[in-house]
């Protein structure tokens, strides 16, 4: 949204915006109440969502909290918290491009350096399941593109 607003400002310097140029703004404003309520719902239930995500991961057949003999629980918890917050903010601001180009590309280098793509492949599918327990179908539809983007980028080689 912010990137689109900046672009609109540059494109329309000295003239009025056309209907098609304003469409993204109208679409965003039509969804802003739902975006805010979804954001607030995730924010207010963050600890519960994270605990459920962790429980689901721990019940998974693969050990998603160890790299060799090293217990990664604290690191995973930090990363899950950041992941949830970044995705929620991207949804609120309708900024998936910025989320991908900034946060996810940077985080992908870390995932690749630790060869953690298999973990990411499972982890970012699980949050898509877990979040459905806390949100309405309409809210899930708003947030899932951010989780799907995380899954796609972080689980690829």
TrEMBL record:
Q: From what superkingdom does this record's organism come? A: Bacteria
Q: Name one GO biological process term.
A: photosynthesis
**What's in the keyword line of the UniProt record?**
Bile pigment, Chromophore
One Pfam entry name? Phycobilisome
- Give the protein family: Belongs to the phycobiliprotein family.
Its cellular-component GO annotations read: phycobilisome
Q: Which CDD domains does the protein's record reference? A: PBP-like (cd08919)
Q: What is this protein called?
A: Allophycocyanin
């Amino acid at each position: 949204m912010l990137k689109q607003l900046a672009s609109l400002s540059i494109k329309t310097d000295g003239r009025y915006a056309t209907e098609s140029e304003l469409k993204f703004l109208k679409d965003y404003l039509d969804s802003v109440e739902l975006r805010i309520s979804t954001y607030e719902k995730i924010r207010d239930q963050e600890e519960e969502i994270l605990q459920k995500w962790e429980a689901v991961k721990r019940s998974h057949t693969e050990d998603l909290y160890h790299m060799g003999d090293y217990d990664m629980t604290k690191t995973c918890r930090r990363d899950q918290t950041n992941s949830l917050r970044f995705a929620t903010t991207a949804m609120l601001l309708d900024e998936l491009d910025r989320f991908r180009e900034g946060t996810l590309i940077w985080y992908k280098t870390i995932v690749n350096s630790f060869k953690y793509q298999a973990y990411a492949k499972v982890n970012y599918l699980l949050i898509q399941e877990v979040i459905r327990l806390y949100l309405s179908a309409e809210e899930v539809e708003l947030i899932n593109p951010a989780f799907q983007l995380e899954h796609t980028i972080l689980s690829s080689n």
